[in-house]
Every structure is written in C-alpha cells, then in structure tokens.
Amino acid sequence: MTDTAIAPATVFEPLVADFYGFANELTDVEKEALAKLRAHLEAEVKPLVTEHWEKATFPREIIPGLHELGVASFAWEETKPFPNSAVFRGFAALELARVDASVATYVGVQNGLAAGAVSLCGSAEQRAHWLPKLASGEIVGSFGLTEPLSGSDSAQGLRTTARHEDGPDGGHWVLNGAKRWIGNATFGDVTVIWAKDEADKQVKGFLVPNDTPGFVATKIENKTALRIVQNADITLTDVVVPHANKLVNANSFRDTAKVLRQTRAEVAWEAVGVAIGAYEAALGYAKERVQFGKPIASHQLVQDLLVKSLGNITASLALVVQVSKMLDAGTQRDEHSALAKAFTTSKMRETVAWCREALGGNGIVLDHDAARFFADAEAIYSYEGTREMNTLIVGRAITGEAAFV
Question: Domain limits of the chain?
C-alpha cells in the first residue's frame, strides 16, 4: 500500500445524517483521522463491495490499507497510534459500516474480539507477542465462542471441552468440539477458542493457530446477509495447544463477558452506520429519481420515509455517543451496552426497510446499495447477542429479577 493510495484529508465534513452534530464531540486530531479513514474507504473499499457481496468473497487486498490506517489498533494501549476516545472508535466503526457492514465486521472481529480477548485476558507477554501482529495485519484473528448447539446460552451451554495434560513448560491442553459462525476463520491465522475445562467446568480461552492439526474451518455457504464475511464452521478434534497459548486471565465466562461488553457497544455503532448507509442511498436516489415530472424527494410520502429514518438515526447516535462516553469514564456496565445494541439494531432494521421502500423496485437490486444494507441488517440485528437476550440483560438490571429461562 503506497502513501498515495490513502487520500490526504485536511477538512472533516460532518455526515448529512449527523443532524444534531454529534461528531463535534471529537477532538481535531480524531476528526482528521476520521476524515482520512472516510476518504480511504470511499476510494479503495466502496468500489469493490458490490461485486464481492454478490460473489460472497472477501477482498483481501483491502486488509493492508485498513491496517496502515490503524483501524485494527484503536483500542489497545500497546498498539494505538495516538490517544483516542471510545467515541472516536465508535465513529470509526460507523464509517466502516456505512460503506459495508462486512468490512466493519472484519475489523470488529480482528480488533474488538480477537485483539480484545488478548488485551483484556492475556498476560503482558501474550499482549506483547500477539497484539502488534494483529494490529499490523501480519496475522488475521478470529473469535470462536458460538457453537452449532450453543449461541445465546454460551455462558452455561458451551460444549467444546479443554483437558489439561501435564508436561514440561506447564504441559498442554487438548481441545475437542465445534464452533459456528466464526468470522475470518476460513483465511485467518489464529482463533481465540473458548472451551469448558473438564476439571473445573469453567470456560477458558485459548489462542489456537488455524494450522494446528485437528483444527478444520469450513466456509458457511448460502448466506443472505454479510455475504462478504467468510464465516466458518470449525471442528476441533484432539487439538493440542501449548499451555503458553492459554489466555492467562480467561478463567471463567465472566472474563469472556469483559470482551463482549466492549465489542457489543461497537456493534451498536455499526448498526447506526448501516442505517446511515441506507439513508444516504435513499436520499441520493430520491433527489435524482424523477416521477410525475419532479424528483421523488419532493413527494410528501418519500419525505416522510426519510424523516422517520433520520429520527431513528439521530436517537441511536445519541445513545451510542453516551454509552461510549461511559466506557471512557469507566462507568459502562453490561446493561448499558446491551440496551445500546438492542435499541440501535431494532431501529436500524426499521430504517433500512423504509430506505429500501423509498427506492421502489430499485430497492431490491444491488446497484443502489440500499438492498445490500437491507440484507446485511438482519445479521447485525442477531450477532453479538440477539435483541431478546440483550433485553433480558437490561430487564435483570432494572427489576433485579433474572428471566433468562
């Protein structure tokens, strides 16, 4: 990637969908970085997404540019290129998602889940070894939690097992089981595998190189959403992992939840980005499409769709900005990120439907982008905790009563 491939940016322009100016929360340095990211995405990534979405392939040529911009190292002290806030990281996720939800998902898995697990649960030595490689793109990471028979009940229902065997240097672990919906795993280098220790029945985390004997990743086909993401079914058959690859501070599902708490808030930002991408597509189309002798943007019913969409986006932006401020302040709890994820994805789902509707028949073809956002929204709505599960997390917090079963 040459320096000229990343367009210089000196002026930050607020998005048309940022109706109340939430980006003013950013510092000048953060605005400049965000403008540079946006220019790069528009020039180098956006022209590729429609073809790859239709083919269900991932444009691996975009990886070096994304890492050169630092988008896979925003959160972690060992690798971040400059001081930045959680609000900035949220806006970066938004910018990625408003171009393509799959590209945002790649970064979210690489940075939020894989690097996040190492940063929050690894030892100093593990962080020093793995984080620079993940940040630079030298290696691609994945996060193996969900299983074929365990999704929402991962806290108790995890079936993948880990058995410790003694030996020199702490011995090794033997993993057996299966994982499903694991992004990046078909072409990645290392996967954080969460497995239940046979000895104490606690969930623990392991860094498993994807070329380890017994580790098999198979691409999930026939998806109707996030087609660019290369999700995998993983089978683990007597996979031997050295003790040095066990995440030192990943010893129960509470430690897994530390990672999910942070990434769930960024998925809420991605949902806002998807809604904005659909809104921008609908607004642009409405200004150009002529019916009855005038642009459809001048029709009352079209304006109604656009204004309702903008209202959803604005309310969602207010929520995610505040929840990110709470993360910076150290006051964000599980229920805060859960409410953000549940609310923004619900409003995103509503918004992309209205925006698709504004395009009429052209709303179901990829040519105008709205159809892609409409389809991808379904996956964002479900992953990183369904709306129902996040609702129950919030419900427990406000009532003091757990209603999960």
Answer: 10-136, 141-252, 254-399
Express each pLDDT in 9-33 by its tens digit.
458 999 999 999 999 999 998 999 9
Answer for the pair 52, 347: CB distance below 8 angstroms, yes or no. no
86 is written with which tokens? 């959680």
- Report the CATH number of the 254-399 domain: 1.20.140.10
- For residues 44 and 65, give the distance between their C-alpha atoms in angstroms, rounded to a whole number: 8
Question: What are the beta bridge partners of residue 46?
Answer: none
Give tens-digit pLDDT for 226-276: 999 999 999 999 999 999 999 999 999 999 988 887 788 889 999 999 999
386, two tokens: 């369904």
d(CA 327, CA 335) in angstroms, rounded, equals 12
From 92, 85, 378, select the one nearest 226 (Cα to Cα). 378
DSSP 69: T
Contacts of 86 (CB under 8 A, 6+ apart): 265, 324, 325, 327, 328
User: Over the stretch 85-97, which tens digit does the pLDDT of each residue have?
Assistant: 889 999 999 999 9
Query: What pLDDT, on the 0 to 100 scale, is given for residue 79?
Result: 52
pTM above 0.85, yes or no: yes
Give residue 306's pLDDT band: very low, low, confident or very high (50, 70, 90): very high
Helix (H, G, I), strand (E, B) or coil at 78: coil
Rounded distance between C-alpha atoms, residue 368 and residue 356, angstroms: 10
Topology of domain 141-252, CATH:
Butyryl-CoA Dehydrogenase, subunit A; domain 2 (2.40.110)
**What distances in angstroms separate CA 380 from CA 267, 313, 349, one per listed residue?**
7, 15, 9
Which of 123, 79, 89, 35 lies closest to 328 in space, CA to CA? 89
H-helix segments, 6-73: 28-40, 46-55, 63-68
Hey, what are 170's tokens? 């702490």
CATH number of 10-136: 1.10.540.10
DSSP 8-state symbol, 140: -
- Nearest residue to 57 (alpha-carbon basis) of 221, 216, 190: 221
Cα–Cα distance measured from residue 23 to residue 129, given in angstroms and rounded to the nearest whole number:
35
